[in-house]
Design brief:
heterodimer, A: alpha+beta, 4-stranded mixed β-sheet, B: 3-stranded parallel β-sheet, 36% helix, globular
């Protein structure tokens, strides 16, 4: 509907169409969720359509851990958040309501999360994105992933691709746009995760990696191979990409124990290893189509524990029950 | 990017052909556009080349054409140094119509006269010190430019076990091969050279097959990355280019014929390996030579009894224009290859 017809607002199921936006007459209680990620399969710099280089990443989703945000509108004049230190989440809710034409809005925002903070699981971004979704739900609508990403970056300067859920995308995490939609879904993977080191990392304070010309050209080939891996649903190619990206990351944010993780991956015939390029998380990737994937994941987990790694977890992506039983 | 630049950036991309179930060919209309554009882009952004500046290079062919296309579109002055034995009138006109100045050395020995060409180039650089020299033989950006080809290859082919390509500067094979080997550490790199090229240890001499081989050893050739070296004589290369056109309707130059010959043999010998061959330019420039029956019949040795398999050598030794030989190079330095540098 064009702005010129705004005076002829039409009512439908308690909503009003106004200036082209679907808008609730008043805010309601809204709930939003966002999953964690388990670091990245690929991170580096890549050429955009503008032919310039952009920092970007390909996220590995971690569907077992998530944040749930609940927004209750109120007339208090401010957005109050619990826990009180989640100020970025509160800011995200405010930006969202402003964006939808509800500013200045007020209410109580509650963040409940099962995501550990500061290790590269994307806890902060999940809080922010869940809050954006809660605020949008409160306004009776939902936002496209591209709009969610832009708001998330405005709220916390960097984001990840979690707004795209489980769609594989090469995402510019500092500028909030997608450089490449890989189209398909993630190939079937079982991930055995752990932490290398125990000290949390403050992502936004990390110095940015200054990649060499050779690394920049190598990222181009990794991006190409990712295109192939998703098109063919090939966990082995994806594992190879993740391993190379993790090795490049070792030059900028070395993880203690990375070599041990790699050698366990090799011992158990894994597709590869991946890391959080700005955290302490590492994961061993297994082909979920393999009948022995579940037992192999258990063996890998044992080997990691015996080597002294912490927080060993197992989960699958599009594994269709690979870890069941 | 202006519209001419968009055209050239698309023109530099290869088309892919499946020559056998396990053999893909990356067929370029003009492969050298890739390094030329990459090197000029870097020179512009680093300030080595300023607006309207002068570029000079020694080249016997397609790298010069690529520079001439870019110089015309971007408004640079270009001087190309070549040898009289290496350039025909039609090609020279094609360069000059783009505004390039072409200087040809006399080349009495017919070896390509690389030393004399470099001396001529040094003279130009002394006279005009602001001149940008792309240095395709030694500039590491030449090899880096082939990240774009490696990206295209993996998007189309996925895993690669064997890469076959011609060597002149070493940029395309060692550049593409280096990037692919990071992705696939088991990658086998197969170099295609010709007799009396010094690249893998032959003594320099006249070469009938142009566009690959060299009379100097460029820094962009990484001998220690190469697993296997083939020397294809001109006649089997010509014959292979014609057969390639007849069988696949892909009209390529003689170096592409040599590369396709080697790659076809490789792919047939190892059906489980995923092979890729780089075919660097099209056949139009050779219409009056290898694609002309009368021209071919005047050659000594033609019609060639085209070999279908190469002769394996244990030492580097030159052959004739009808021969096709190879050695297991085993990632050696040039000085470590038995027979390399021997004077026959």
């Amino acid at each position: 509907m064009s702005p010129g017809t705004a005076d002829r607002d039409s009512f439908e199921a308690g909503r009003v169409f106004y200036n082209g936006h679907v808008r609730a007459i008043s805010l309601q209680t809204g709930i939003g969720q966002a999953i964690a990620h388990h670091g990245e399969l690929l991170q580096g710099v890549f050429q955009g359509r503008d032919r310039r280089l952009h920092r970007a990443l390909l996220t590995l989703p971690h569907p077992l851990r998530m944040t749930t945000a609940t927004f209750w509108p109120s007339s208090s004049g401010v957005i109050a958040v619990r826990p009180a230190d989640r100020t970025k989440a509160a800011r995200a809710a405010k930006l969202t309501l402003d964006h939808l034409g509800f500013g200045p809005a007020a209410g109580d925002l509650t963040i409940e999360s099962t995501i550990p903070v500061g290790h590269g699981y994307g806890s902060s971004t999940a809080d922010v994105i869940a809050s954006i979704r809660a605020a949008a739900a409160s306004a009776g609508t939902s936002l496209r992933p591209s709009a969610v990403s832009r708001l998330a970056i405005e709220a916390e300067t960097a984001s990840d691709a979690i707004a795209y859920c489980e769609q594989p995308v090469l995402f510019s995490h500092r500028e909030g746009f997608v450089l490449e939609h890989f189209g398909a879904e993630y190939p079937p993977l079982v991930v055995v995760g752990c932490r290398c080191g125990t000290e949390p990392v403050d992502t936004l304070r990390l110095p940015r990696a200054r990649y060499s010309s050779e690394e920049i050209e190598q990222f181009r080939t990794l991006r190409g191979l990712a295109g192939r891996a998703f098109a063919q649903q090939d966990p082995w190619l994806l594992g190879r990409i993740a391993t190379i990206s993790a090795c490049i990351s070792q030059r900028y944010l070395p993880k203690p124990g990375f070599d041990a993780v790699r050698s366990i991956a090799e011992d158990f015939g894994a597709c590869g290893v991946q890391v959080s390029h700005s955290g302490t998380v590492a994961g061993i990737l297994l082909d979920a189509r393999n009948r022995e994937a579940a037992s192999r994941a258990l063996s890998v987990a044992d080997a990691l524990l015996r080597s002294g790694f912490h927080d060993v977890t197992r989960f699958s992506i599009n594994g269709e029950g690979a870890l069941a039983g | 990017m202006n519209r001419e630049e968009q055209y050239l950036s698309e023109y530099e991309a290869p088309r892919f052909a499946k020559l056998r179930p396990n053999l893909h060919a990356a067929c370029f209309p003009l492969m050298k556009l890739l390094p030329a554009r990459f090197i000029l882009d870097r020179a512009q952004s680093s300030g080595q080349l300023s607006a309207g500046g002068h570029i000079a290079e020694t080249t016997s062919g397609t790298f010069g054409l690529a520079l001439a296309l870019l110089a015309a579109v971007r408004g640079y002055e270009l001087t190309l140094v070549t040898a009289s034995s290496l350039i025909d009138d039609a090609f020279r006109r094609r360069l000059e119509l783009l505004g390039a100045a072409v200087r040809a050395t006399a080349d009495h020995k017919g070896t390509g006269d690389q030393e004399a060409r470099l001396a001529e180039l040094r003279g130009i650089l002394e006279d005009r010190p602001e001149t940008f020299w792309p240095r395709q033989y030694d500039n590491p950006q030449n090899a880096l430019a082939y990240g774009r080809l490696a990206e295209r290859i993996v998007r189309v082919v996925g895993r690669v076990d064997c890469l076959v390509g011609c060597v002149g500067s070493g940029g395309s094979l060692c550049g593409t091969g280096g990037f692919l080997r990071t992705l696939f550490p088991g990658l086998r790199l197969v170099a295609v050279d010709t007799n009396r090229s010094v690249l893998f240890g032959h003594p320099a001499g006249p070469r009938l097959l142009r566009g690959l081989g060299n009379s100097i050893v460029p820094a962009n050739l990484k001998h220690e990355a190469i697993d296997e070296v083939h020397w294809v004589g001109a006649l089997p290369a010509f014959s292979a280019a014609r057969a390639h056109y007849r069988e696949h309707a892909i009209f390529m130059g003689p170096t592409s014929g040599a590369a396709a010959l080697v790659a076809g043999w490789h792919a047939g010998r190892d059906p489980g390996a995923s092979c890729v061959v780089i075919l660097p330019d099209e056949g139009h420039r050779y219409q009056d030579t290898l694609y002309d029956d009368a021209w071919l019949e005047a050659l000594e040795g033609w019609p060639v009894c085209a070999p279908t398999t190469p002769v394996q050598l244990t030492r580097v030794q030159p052959g004739g224009e009808c021969d096709w030989t190879y050695v297991e190079w085993r990632r050696r330095e040039l000085r470590d290859a038995p027979g390399a540098g021997d004077v026959p």
